[in-house]
């Protein structure tokens, strides 16, 4: 503890004893968010650990997290100066970049462009919806083929291609086949990304691990390779766009960014040209792993709880009927589908810790002094599984989000934290909510999903920035002959 003028004590957050060299690295376990929940019971919602030589403050619980990220939003808006963060998106990442005036302009441009191509108004929503519906219809054919003869398959890799295709269509006006090996290889290694940049990854806090052969070093090498490969893929597409750019016609988001950044429309002039590639890479990367992981949880929970699946199908059949597909306009009339999606978010909390933050100046939270440039981990899981807030938080119960009239309880859904809050809040929230609604409702309208009776389904996870379920098998059956397309 330090002393300042007027003898007011600057109280440092409590925390476990840090061992020399490693600090508390060996205590994190396979699922650090669960370890942090246990530590919060001992030390309180704000506590300090050490990873290697770095001090890290961990924030838990809704009140404390909102107090920090919303009330003191600028003070908590930094990112740590990790070397892995500098590799992302050719060093021009907004998501992993430090907080500055340039960053504010960058985030504004990325957010407003993404909205303009997805959920800004009726027209953009309609176009976005067409892309999504086409992907789901294609995916259904792939699923049915894989299930022919009663086979079981793991849906995760199929979801990565479908989701990457939606964002590729927005960024480049182009989609890829499920059989395209190059594309599959490009999008199929997302887990290596999340395992390196997720809170609790050791490479940035124990850099000496890179000096001798070990699993952390090989993971880091894969991380570097995949970032370079991904960035080169985007560079190539953006340069084709520059060659054929016509200011009169904005074909897709790459054109929009070229217009704003290269041609200095509005706030774009403060960013250099290479930010076009950086921004497109960010959006392509950020949207993929999260949404395909979400869908992998959706299917797992549908087959784990067949009575929930049946209730969802009953609601969809009653509201949508049999002669058209569900659309975004059905959203408000499908409260159980929405409750199900919120419960998937809350129960799985599949982004349990946000991307690490850092403090941009000295700040006091819950009476504890946190100096500038401290790394901050934000435990979203602790909010979604808080026993004081949720009844039986470890049980999967979509009904918890419905009121006595069967309508969505807005106060309760506000209490689910998965897109973070404050200045670093995710910019893909509206797009993802619509996309997940469309995937879930169209898949359930058209198909039913079945587990392998020989397999015991577990809720065990593979750790990373996004928590993935352990691979599982599903078999898909068509509920009816393909409905005519009405979109
Ligand atoms: C950041 C969650 C989908 C773009 C984040 C963060 C979380 C998150 C937790 C970190 C916030 C923080 O550090 O405090 C999710 C979830 C998604 C999703 C759960 C899907 C269900 C998307 C999509 C896009 C996107 C589809 C874009 C196409 C971003 C960007 C950031 C971000 C650019 C960085 C924001 C910043 O640093 O200011 N997201 N995300 N996300 N997300 Fe998402």
Automatic annotation (TrEMBL):
Example of a GO biological process term: hormone biosynthetic process
GO molecular function, one term: iron ion binding
Binding site for heme: 426
Protein's UniProt keywords contain ATP-binding: no
Subcellular location, record wording: Membrane
Segments passing through the bilayer: none
Keyword hit for Transmembrane helix: no
Domain of life, source organism: Eukaryota
CC per GO annotation: membrane
Similarity-based family: Belongs to the cytochrome P450 family.
Protein name: Unspecific monooxygenase
